[in-house]
Amino acid sequence: MPDNDARLAIGELARRAGTAPSALRYYERIGLLPPADRAGGKRHYSPASAERLALVRLYQYAGFTLKEIRKLLAAGSRRGASWTSLAEHKIAELDARIAEAQRAKDLLEHVLNCPHHDLLTCPNFRAAFQARLEAGS
Amino acid sequence: MPDNDARLAIGELARRAGTAPSALRYYERIGLLPPADRAGGKRHYSPASAERLALVRLYQYAGFTLKEIRKLLAAGSRRGASWTSLAEHKIAELDARIAEAQRAKDLLEHVLNCPHHDLLTCPNFRAAFQARLEAGS
DNA sequence: GTGCAGGTTGAAGCGCACTTCAAGTCAAGG
DNA sequence: CCTTGACTTGAAGTGCGCTTCAACCTGCAC
Predict the structure, then answer these.
(1) 3-state secondary structure chain A
(2) For B108, which of A90, A109, A133 is closest by C-beta distance?
(3) Which residue of A has its CA nearest to B47?
(4) Phi, psi (5° rounding) for residue B118?
(5) Low-confidence ranges of chain A (pLDDT < 70)
(6) Is the pLDDT of residue B60 over 60?
(7) Chain C, protein-covered positions (CB within 7 A)
């Protein structure tokens, strides 16, 4: 029994990659994965294509959108200028995301610990939004 | 000339709040803002309604979805049990978001500083995704 | 009156990442 | 042979937060 574990059905690969089969078909449709080999109409994946999927998933994990991942894949797995540029932009974006979430968290924690039971009487809270409404003068 | 600055047209309020007029109409449609007073068919906003909008925007700034904001508004501006519960859930969510972005950032920074020029030869990178594909055994 | 900026409506569209559905195919097991 | 389960397809739907569009109306300046 040669190559017993080599090729996977879509359901198997999806399960191992932690996605739904529909997602894999979707990736193929939008050109993120190359058209899979078929046996009797059904997709079956080689270890190489499984690895390609893993790369896609890892990029997703790193915060890239599918559109960006397409570019990354086109840039190859070698770290070239475009790869580096994309990564640096993404890091900046992640920093912004972190800062934004932190600001939001700080605001909420302030309110939870604030001595003012009514939000609208809390000076910090008022200051935070009054600024917006009076800026138009 | 009494109440000269009291009531704002939708464009003015939107500008001051930093949104588009279409967003305000949208908020009204989905019940986030009460139907505005009309003068000759046109909306005009009192300071009170402007304040309500500011609160909505501030909640958005704090990371709440519009659906959640509807609940918050229903809970009133006094910090009650439901308000506190929503805020605590959101803080947990923000923590998760921060951690996720940080993980992503760490990964990218590793790759940028990694001595392996080809991603697929970087052991950390491989480990990160190989784990996913072999977990199904 | 004429033009213009800015308002009104309902319906449809967008971007993202998929999911869901209906209708059909295929291989293996009893 | 027939069922079962996993697969196939294209098209449409989902959730979020709006935006855009077409067609129309309003108030003000000139």
Answers:
(1) CCCCCCCEEHHHHHHHHCCCHHHHHHHHHCCCCCCCEEECCEEEECHHHHHHHHHHHHHHHCCCCHHHHHHHHHCCCECCHHHHHHHHHHHHHHHHHHHHHHHHHHHHHHHHHCCCCEHHHCHHHHHHHHHHHHCCC
(2) A90
(3) A133
(4) -100, 125
(5) 1-5, 131-137
(6) yes
(7) 6-9, 16-21, 25-27
